[in-house]
Amino acid sequence: MECKIKWTGVDGMTFLAETGSGHVVAMDGAPEGGGRNLAPRPMELMLAGAGGCTAYDVVLILKRGRHDVRGCEVSLAADRADTDPKVFTSIRFTYKVSGKGLKPEAVERAVHLSAEKYCSASIMLGKTAEITHEWEIVEV
Questions:
Q1: Alpha-carbon dihedral of residues 67, 75, 42, 3, nearest 10 degrees?
Q2: What is the mean predicted confidence (pLDDT) over 39-49?
Q3: What are the phi and psi torsion angles at 113 (to 5°)?
């Protein structure tokens, strides 16, 4: 896996990340840090990456189990250390999984497998942060 980061210029703190798959993502800082607030902060993208990683896992696990999953939303709330390095100290993952006739044990299993085995991003963040998971099923 590769990624290339390029500062866009001398004014502001906007950076472009080009991923190995050829996609571009902008990052910026807060105005008080010299940024112009034009794009997400790098740590916000890290949190979003963990959410995307686990959502992908949960949907894939449920689909492979032939469960009628129709939607999956993951909300994340994180706390960071007060001093540098301002790592995540706690992250709360809240899943809202929708479908038809989804069994609680199947959703719980999918969340658990993602958290403990498959989601590299959240497992890596778990080295510095206390991570908790909550989930609910919405019948559609």
A1: 0
A2: 97
A3: -60, -40
**What pTM does this model have?**
0.93
Q: Which helix (H) or strand (E) holds 106?
A: helix 104-113
Distance CA 135, CA 27 (A): 30
CATH of 42-139, one of 3.30.300.20, 3.30.450.370, 1.10.357.10, 3.90.1300.10: 3.30.300.20
Whole-angstrom distance, CA of residue 52 vs CA of residue 75: 10
Q: What percent of the chain has pLDDT over 70?
A: 100
- How many other C-beta atoms can be found within 10 angstroms of the C-beta atom of residue 87? 14
What pLDDT is stored for residue 58 in this prediction? 98
Rounded distance, CA 97 to CA 68, Å? Answer: 11
Q: Which residues pair with 5 in a beta bridge?
A: 17
DSSP H helices in 8-78: 42-64
Decide: 122 and 50 in contact? Cβ < 8 Å.
yes
